[in-house]
Amino acid sequence: MEDLLDLYMQPYDEAYPVVCIDERPCQLIGHLQSPEPPRPGRLAREDTEFSRHGACSTFLMFEPQAGWRHALVKATRTKRDFADCLKYLLDEKYPQASKVRLVLDNLNTHTPAALYETFAFPEALRLAKRIEWHYTPLHGSWLNMVEIELSVLVNQCLKRRIGDIEQLRQEIAAWEQARNAQRATVQWRFTPPDARIKLKHLYPSREEAP
Questions:
Q1: Which residues span the membrane (predicted)?
Q2: DSSP 8-state code for residue 50
Q3: Global pTM?
Q4: Residue 55 or residue 119, greater confidence
């Protein structure tokens, strides 16, 4: 926990950007009947029946200090999908960075092994050497700032029916563009001293010798 909190308090360094990453499942839900748009004196109407079109996963990468985020919508949530996201992050977004300091939870796909199972050894090694891995504690994924950004994504974009993966990509891309234009970020105020007070029960204690 304190490793992450210390990381968040460090000044911005473009050579060592701090990037939070996580993913969430997205249900693809369509309409059986076309909804009726709003009219003067009447709200929009939507039939309660709907059709299911499967599911996909949205991988969200978030650099809080720069107010930047990018989402990749994938049909699945495998180690290969995760490795593809890392390659994009390193080669497309941060090709000049010495290392990307990556914040992520303990999901079984979130490991360097994902790179070696996806790419040839020299390529996997090249990518792995440019990542500094920082994991949240077990049951402590709330310490990953991307969780807050995922909540914003859900509330602002995904609380409605979206029936196919291409439409989902377009809608999320529009949301992403607007958020990046605002340089929207997270005002993180939870520090190591706060943790030592509010989460005192998590710290080891030692009784004084008589």
A1: none
A2: E
A3: 0.86
A4: 119
